[in-house]
Input
Amino acid sequence: MNDLLERPRKVYVSRKIEFNAAHRLFNPDLPDDENVAIYGKCSNKHGHGHNYLLEITLSGIVDRTTGFLFDLKELKTILEEEIINRFDHKHLNHDVAELQKCVPTTEVLCVLVWDILEERLGNILNRELALHEVKIYETGKNSVCYLGE
Amino acid sequence: MNDLLERPRKVYVSRKIEFNAAHRLFNPDLPDDENVAIYGKCSNKHGHGHNYLLEITLSGIVDRTTGFLFDLKELKTILEEEIINRFDHKHLNHDVAELQKCVPTTEVLCVLVWDILEERLGNILNRELALHEVKIYETGKNSVCYLGE
Amino acid sequence: MNDLLERPRKVYVSRKIEFNAAHRLFNPDLPDDENVAIYGKCSNKHGHGHNYLLEITLSGIVDRTTGFLFDLKELKTILEEEIINRFDHKHLNHDVAELQKCVPTTEVLCVLVWDILEERLGNILNRELALHEVKIYETGKNSVCYLGE
Amino acid sequence: MNDLLERPRKVYVSRKIEFNAAHRLFNPDLPDDENVAIYGKCSNKHGHGHNYLLEITLSGIVDRTTGFLFDLKELKTILEEEIINRFDHKHLNHDVAELQKCVPTTEVLCVLVWDILEERLGNILNRELALHEVKIYETGKNSVCYLGE
Amino acid sequence: MNDLLERPRKVYVSRKIEFNAAHRLFNPDLPDDENVAIYGKCSNKHGHGHNYLLEITLSGIVDRTTGFLFDLKELKTILEEEIINRFDHKHLNHDVAELQKCVPTTEVLCVLVWDILEERLGNILNRELALHEVKIYETGKNSVCYLGE
Amino acid sequence: MNDLLERPRKVYVSRKIEFNAAHRLFNPDLPDDENVAIYGKCSNKHGHGHNYLLEITLSGIVDRTTGFLFDLKELKTILEEEIINRFDHKHLNHDVAELQKCVPTTEVLCVLVWDILEERLGNILNRELALHEVKIYETGKNSVCYLGE
Output
């Protein structure tokens, strides 16, 4: 079946999930006034928060039998376990072990999500399936993406 | 000028603003297990956060000279002073005086914003200009509105 | 606690869910050409489909202890059982018993969702909690709402 | 057919259309400095513009045979003829006859669209079909609605 | 005219269109239980449906006389004829000849739209105008893109 | 601090701003009928307008101390001074010096914004910080992007 897939076709498949978290932008290695100069009101003591919208993109060759790049049910399970459980309804500065040595900017969060997913996907990734991009919208106006470079 | 306005026309004018805040749903009058039963992961100790989207609606008669219900530059100033300064980049449980005796649910936040704006608009409100609605989207999925009832 | 709630406050709380379904607009009591005249390409034999976005609004008095109008975890369970299970990934004309005698327009779907929820919520509804509105967006451009009138 | 419609059901059906237009907020009966004080940069000489998003809502009883409140193909034709032809890709101050005596604010535009549609729908409107609301989003942040009051 | 275009400038121009279709994910070469294991509720017998949002991106050098990459009126006609006529208000499994040997996943649909447009644009494409990307959002959460690789 | 940043990480940071402007697509070097053939109703004499949504993307290495690619407060100032002041609430054909020899299509606008920002960012740009992309959405359906090629 599926003669459109007779020759290999490389596609990019994206899935969005949302998590709601608090964070504070503050570098304890720097004096308070420098933190205010760099982070402004983002450095307020008790933190503030966001509805983070995360978009994961996988790339690779469409499977000839299923017509899928990857089983989205499996991806959903992975994202629940690795992302939602770790970040959703958490305070990023207090509750996430991997961020204890980091200022939890959106840039850093993107890099962390990439590292987490790359390790988790590990043996699933192969010549025909790659983690392509992690994109996080902190607000409707600001976003960051990381491609593993 | 403006013969479309020869007879009084009642309109509803809405303006959206966004603020980013942390909150924790937790009632200190209740035991911990009851808080967990009621609020689930929303009761996590250090809180989480949202991009709150607030929509204010005024109603009243369009001014025949300006074609406006209300000067949006003035409304913008009021919203900056009363809402953004009070809530943006804050932790609602720790940083907002008016919420010290409240569980900062979206319902409570709606009621508070109404009370704040009603007091501030005070002498501006008259027979031809009313505060009509305060609506808050906590996420893209959940919203609450309050009409002063 | 919660002195903002010392006097009763009536709020409207909305929650959105999405379901993906196929439907065909076709009235078997009418001749084919009349169906085409009324429904155009919406009457195509095998049907077409939509990402239906459903918004449920409850109204009532905010609870003084919890700061909630209604437990959203409970609402989520109800919507899963009554709406998602019944409509999601279904063909409305073939798979939904309640629509067997209906042309499954968005108007009809709105009325049906209201009737289902009103029956299910039944003994939960009281003087302080009402089903206020069922709104369905068939596409980003078209929507219908029903308030039980 | 359609036993859900055995008793009359009142619904609200909304349709969105977009038009792109230029306008200038300027009242020629007032001196220039007063125009600047009232309208700020919206009074710039050559005008500016918007993607206006217009939402029309009709209300009434669902038809038992069709399951529709109103034939959306007919509504589409009406909106093309009355709204798109009149406003789309126009400069509201120069090109729209009905606005020659008006400052083309969104409030005024809402009232004008209502008047145009009420006249056009004229003999279609009856006890079971009413024009309910005209809503215009000037930007994603600002909107006005008019209900004929 | 247009001295900004004195040197060649390569841009990417995107246009979105929507079509509403039903589909069923089911591979007749596989036993039923395997279909359920792979496609879950997406394999329901009569199908379900989506508001598919399609975004086409062309790339190339801006024309010095017109300031356009490509005449969007012509692109609109092509998309009406090739995409809307073929997919809108159809059941992809029953009504689309090109999909008869395929499981109509979003991946496969992306590849098919690319092949259709590449053939149709054929002699229009040249060194200065290329089909760059076909992106399809199946829902607000899931999307696939194909770049002809 | 920030051991996630021990090795250099290249990210892409995007920020959206909106400006509202009028424009007319008309090339004075061509006869009127040719302008109508090319630009259709976009060539109407007094112009029309849009809510232009502009997305700027910078790329480069995340700073180890701040966790930022670039200070968004500084970017905001630059965008206010260079983009908002120049384009917002203006008629692109009459009020923007740089467009006097251009047909102000979205393609041309993208190229111009790139040139303006590249010059302004000038000495800020270095081996670790680049201007990556300028994207403009003219409407929700049409967009153009330019990457400096």
